[in-house]
Inverse folding.
């Protein structure tokens, strides 16, 4: 589970919220598959609307230009983000995300390795609406500032608790990683983050850094599935 401190600035969040407020919204059940539909009780911005599509594309571009997202997910394919909204007493019960999804408007399929929620409401705008992820260390509760995101394994059971005040708006997407194995992906992430930290600390052991960098890229070469 990885928190991305900032994907969107406060100004960008306001713009997204303004445009989403005027967008057409549909019943979220329409986009849930199988068992997930029976526990899904929220609204989803109409993905066929031009403005919504444009917002999704803007956010998609942000993912690709956020180093922490790239490092943590090593994305090969990214599902165009969907925008969801939970009003009072709306929730999304425990579910797993579908393992394979068709990318809308294409014949391409995507295997969901990582799921990602980008928060578009500030925590003080609503009560409830926590994202709960079941992990081997127990349930993790997540509620982040607007513009922040969390990446979590698509294989984990998760839910969004009922909103009891205000409304919770978020963007959600799924990524197929170049590295299917989650623990390998996690090790690669740790290696990359450590290299980046050494560089940012002004470490001058240039040839050792080059070696580490080389190892990192060779591991990617060895384990990448495209
Ligand atoms: O709104 C969220 O944070 C998560 C939504 C979700 O789990 C889903 O759409 O599959
Ligand atoms: Fe989900």
């Amino acid at each position: 589970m990885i928190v991305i401190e900032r994907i969107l600035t406060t100004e960008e969040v306001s713009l997204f919220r303004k445009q989403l407020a005027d967008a057409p919204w549909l019943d979220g059940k329409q986009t849930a598959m199988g068992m997930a539909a029976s526990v899904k009780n929220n609204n989803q911005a109409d993905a066929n609307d031009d403005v919504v599509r444009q917002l999704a594309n803007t956010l998609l571009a942000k993912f690709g230009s956020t180093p922490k997202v790239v490092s943590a997910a090593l994305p090969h394919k990214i599902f165009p983000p969907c925008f969801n909204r939970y009003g009072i007493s709306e929730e999304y019960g425990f579910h797993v995300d579908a393992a394979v999804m068709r990318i809308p408007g294409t014949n391409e399929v995507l295997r969901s390795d990582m799921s990602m929620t980008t928060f578009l409401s500030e925590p003080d705008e609503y009560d409830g609406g926590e994202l709960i992820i079941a992990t081997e260390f127990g349930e993790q509760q997540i509620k982040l500032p607007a513009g922040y995101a969390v990446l979590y394994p698509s294989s984990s059971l998760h839910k969004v608790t009922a909103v009891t005040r205000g409304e919770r708006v978020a963007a959600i997407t799924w990524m197929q990683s170049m590295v299917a194995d989650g623990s390998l992906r996690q090790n690669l992430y740790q290696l990359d983050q450590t290299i980046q930290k050494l560089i940012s600390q002004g470490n001058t052991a240039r040839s050792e850094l080059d070696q580490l960098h080389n190892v990192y890229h060779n591991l990617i070469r060895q384990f990448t599935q495209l």
